[in-house]
Amino acid sequence: MSQPQTFGELKRTHWGTPALQRRSVKDEMRANLIGRLERGEALFEGIVGFEDSVIPQVVNAILSKHNLILLGLRGQAKSRILRALTGLLDEEIPVLDGCEINDNPFAPLCRFCRSRLKQQGDETPIAFLSRSDRYVEKLATPDVTIADMIGDIDPIRAARSGLNLSDELTIHYGLLPRSNRGIFAINELPDLAGKIQVGLFNILQEGDIQIKGYPIRLLLDLVMVFTANPEDYTARGKIVTPLKDRIGSEIRTHYPATLEQGIAITQQEAWTQRNGNVRLFMPSYIQEIVEGVAFHAREDKKVDKRSGVSQRLPISVLENVVSNAERRAILSKEPSIVPRVCDIYAALPSMTGKLELEYEGELKGAEAVAQELVRSSVKQIFARRLTGVDLQQIVDWFDLGGSLKLSETASAKETLEQLGAIQGLVEKAAALGVKKKDDPPLLASACEFILEGLYATQKISRSEERGYFAPEKKRQEPYFDEKSGRARKTFN
């Protein structure tokens, strides 16, 4: 069935029913949300870890027909949630063709559209607006003006048309009016200048705007949504308190609560499936270590808690890990890409720029802090995966003078030839589900993880020059304490 082209044709469709003629955007979203809940459909695709916390609060806000703000640190999917709200809009809605502010044919706001309807009546042309075109997003920056947001008088238009400046037809509309009958999102709301925040009072409370002091009222139909950092969204921050009072629901986002949730998000967002004939096999312990780096960073005292550690960190690191393993596979002409622990250390450049450090961290340096985080993550995953596995034979090999230096670019075959010298190492890979008959790249990755775990738990040592080796033993010798007159033990 073809879409109506004129106002007269539109009135003869379902859009002409009283229930839809003047239905607001908030009523529209509420009705579509209720329908999804009744059918048991997914509400927000691609949002992981918020099912029992953030999503129910967003649902309540929409059911209450509230404007809402998402408060959270960087990398907590705030913008993604806002953009997902378009899924609760109708697939398309009718608008007056050529209208700058998407006027409802049954209740036009602007004078130009009212005049057209009066002159052309049922022959007034109609267009349809898709849901994706009904979402407008603005990043708040200090240079945003009230004209950008609301609009201004256009003197050139007034002069060309011979109109008075106070005439409504001389208005150049800003982002808010152009978002009419849709969703208007402002990212980082506190970064707006105070006078711009004050300019939002009317639209949030009464639903209207005023331009240049002229008595022109446009009763806009909008859902307004915002994001902000909790540190700025306080009386001591950069937010105007009366603006906070006018926002219906304040919803706090958070980072993944469990390692499994974090891994699911990273898998979803990271670009790991590369083109080409070389297949990728990602060991689960590598994924856990990469995700664990972010979890440890969020708890580390050397990392700024107010800034947070974005979920983009493990996403970028995992992509870099795969790239380093891909480079090795290409150079070695191996048929598969299997990341190793050394690839995580090679991915430090994708880590350091995402860590905001405290003073103590600045003294150590971003790279040293990142290496510590990787080591802490390896230690945790190693303990989880290999608890109860006897690795003393491997430790003894190093204690007896053995040492091993691995190259991150060496092929799996070359690496296994070196690892095979360590008694019991290859056999212990079975504890990770890897057997001798498995692919050499997978076996090499498992063996290297065991060695790195022993280093992280201080059973063996490692350095850039020597590779893996036995830690230096501390000798215990008595010495005479002159004050007490007795022999005492100390460590040299």
Q: Any key phrases for this structure?
A:
single chain, about 500 residues, alpha/beta, Rossmann fold, two-stranded antiparallel sheet, 23 helices, disordered C terminus
Secondary-structure map:
Elements: H1 7-11, H2 18-21, H3 25-39, H4 54-63, E1 68-71, H5 78-84, E2 92-96, H6 111-120, E3 126-130, E4 135-139, H7 146-149, E5 151-153, H8 155-161, E6 171-173, H9 175-178, E7 182-187, H10 194-199, H11 201-205, E8 208-209, E9 218-219, E10 222-228, H12 241-246, E11 249-252, H13 259-269, E12 279-280, H14 284-299, H15 312-332, E13 336-337, H16 341-346, H17 349-352, H18 359-364, H19 366-386, H20 392-399, H21 412-419, H22 425-428, H23 440-456, E14 461-463, E15 467-469, E16 476-481, E17 486-491
Parallel strand pairs: 1-10, 1-11, 4-7, 7-10, 12-13
Antiparallel strand pairs: 2-3, 5-6, 8-9, 14-15, 16-17
Helix pairs in contact: 13-14, 13-15, 14-15, 14-19, 19-23, 21-23
